Amino acid sequence: MAETAGAPRPLTHARLLKIALPIVLSNATVPILGAVDTGVVGQMGQAAPIGAVGVGAIILTGVYWIFGFLRMGTTGFAAQAHGAGQAGEVSALLTRALMLGLAAGAAIIALQSLIFAGAFALSPASREVEGMARDYMRIRVWSAPALISLYGVTGWLIALERTRAVLVIQLVMNGLNIGLDLWFVLGLGWGVQGVATATFIAEWSGLGVGLWLCRNAFANPAWRDWPRIFNRARLVLMVRVNSDILFRSMLLQAIFISFLFVGADFGDVTLAANQVLLQFLTITAYALDGFAFGAETLVGQALGARNRAALRRGAILSSGWGMAIGLGLGLVFWVFGGAIIDLMTTAPEVRLVAREFLPFMVLAPLLGGPSWMLDGIFIGATRSRDMRNMMALSFAVYVLAVLGLVGPFGNQGLWLAFLISFVARGVTLGLRYPALEAEAAR
Fold first, then answer.
1. N or C: lower Cβ tally within 10 Å for the chain?
2. Which residue, 395, 389, 397, 396, is CA-closest to 244?
3. Whose CA is closest to 198, among 134, 139, 153, 147?
4. b/e map of 193-205 (b: 16 or more CB within 10 Å)?
5. pTM
6. Residue 77, burial from CB neighbour count under 10 angstroms (0-12, 13-18, 19+)
């Protein structure tokens, strides 16, 4: 792999779809695994195991999510290095990501007692559920280094447009997990510990598959060029960008959590209806992620090559597809939203309330689409400071909207505030886009 840039590849619809579609398919495997995890312990005929797996998975997912910046930051840096023809730096970035992932996972293992105690103090469960959840977490936590390292591997593969490899990792990992779930729980009767063991094996296997798929990076001696890997300026930049992304993600998560907490004040039925409708948003995110990831890759490579025209073309191409998908989803929710709600809940009162607020979910893909796509564009450009600052501004707009709208309009006002936060993110990042293009021209 030479350290020089080759001829630029044309930015076509086919190239974008080749990046995006495997990510969409990969995302589709995630809810299937969750359903199998729940289904196998459900065959035990007790409520506690289902709750234990749910609680344990939520706690660990929340802890691992803190390191989600590793996926985004790695994609941006690797795409830019690839676009600049810096093959050695591309390989060195994979090593940095793996080292950070392994170190973060080791820290979680070392601190597991404190993490578990704090989690159950904030979200107490019955003694039986907590005991089973701790059994689950004590096993699964040992795969933390593998899963967090996979964030870096995934980001690196996306940067190089190798999203089919990402799909292969997910299919192998989730397929193995499902198969082991069935064997350990239904065949051997291991219960909750069987689900945890299956996930532990699957996550380490996923990392193994990922490293094998990245084997071309290890053909370049730069992957173990320690002076390059530990270059102070590059490490400082990596820490700064990842810190900005982490802060931005925490504010975004705060919006979702506060939405649920404020909605809880309107009663159990409204809370349940809001939770059902949020699944529409999850579907939207899974569908748009592929095109946002495409934006990360194309924009990052164009910026690395200092090609302003390619950057604009990549941003427009990916955003056009993203908004078309958003429009399509809005139409699907409008026509079939009631039927989807009925599939998600059998409670008549929840169905009624969810239908009342369904129009907000029809609008969500359209109003939220620009913010999703701009996130991808700015991640690819590693313009993390803009992402952090605009997210802080959008969060402030959301808080003001909640304070001003929830009182007079109730749950309708809460949904309005939620959608306003999407619009604010899109508008504020959109205003910073010209500066991003200007950087590519320098």
1. C
2. 389
3. 139
4. bbbbbbbbbbbbb
5. 0.90
6. buried
